[in-house]
Amino acid sequence: xxxxxxxxxxxxxxxxxxxxxxxxxxxxxxxxxxxxxxxxxxxxxxxxxxxxxxxxxxxxxxxxxxxxxxxxxxxxxxxxxxxxxxxxxxxxxxxxxxxxxxxxxxxxxxxxxxxxxxxxxxxxxxxxxxxxxxxxxxxxxxxxxxxxxxxxxxxxxxxxxxxxxxxxxxxxxxxxxxxxxxxxxxxxxxxxxxxxxxxxxxxxxxxxxxxxxxxxxxxxxxxxxxxxxxxxxxxxxxxxxxxxxxxxxxxxxxxxxxxxxxxxxxxxxxxxxxxxxxxxxxxxxxxxxxxxxxxxxxxxxxxxxxxxxxxxxxxxxxxxxxxxxxxxxxxxxxxxxxxxxxxxxxxxxxxxxxxxxxxxxxxxxxxxxxxxxxxxxxxxxxxxxxxxxxxxxxxxxxxxxxx
Length: 403
What we know:
six-stranded parallel beta sheet; about 400 residues; globular; alpha/beta
């Protein structure tokens, strides 16, 4: 099969591991031909171009800035994306007939590209739903359902429904996602919506005590404390105010040490806290090369996940998988609508609290300072990953519709 994948994720090679490249590599491994269409944002100063890599062809399309920019530029660039992708596909992939169109949210503004490819090639369309927009923007106060912001909401809600309409199948990250989607979009056929979770290719990660000591010394992290790591986006969805409250509440905890590594629109707020209050048991890193971050992550003890308590949509962060890959227990602080906490606790590979309960978060921190509990939960995390969240399993779910 010829498969085209439409994404905003910056993909330069299938050797770079993430939830999308690992899945696409699985298609290549199974003798399919993969074509990726991705964004080359204006800030990178690169024209539209093609990268060839074996049975994978990557088309980077010059677009406006979409990631880590202000909401006005992000909105305009997202709306323009549809025509930019379509023109690039017509120019560079005019002679390729596609059998399957894969795409994820965000963005929701590619419906006309999908419609064009379906009509041109008689292809099937599979949406991997990773983000429910514009409702998530409403939850965080960025949009409203009334006034001027209400007009934006209605415009994007119309585009969201059009994207669903163009999709032959919709794969959701969890059962809560499936239930939410069907409840709020009753026109969708139940048979077209299924669980197709975030997944990665399994890799062996050895815990080398000598290497752990080297890495902790390199980054100035204590050897005698339980290290809690948050790595990833630091934006509004993560509820940074609650994260800061948790750091404050545990500032005198003699057993725990917190490492925050990431970037995003709320990074400056977090940095102000570190600059002013100078917590002795926490470190903040704005950017680390991938090799350094991976080494740091593998030397930590517990993975942290934060989601803003205001969410009414059930998010399921892919960050979870990297913690599970490294056999790390997970401490998640989220809203009440996601089933992430239920999955973690039912699988016995971590602890959960609502992201407005600092007291319970702190109690969980103390529990996870127990090395025996961490060992059991860490092993459970790895086993749960192997049984549920591998790219091979996701590949099978998608291909089940085409075999």
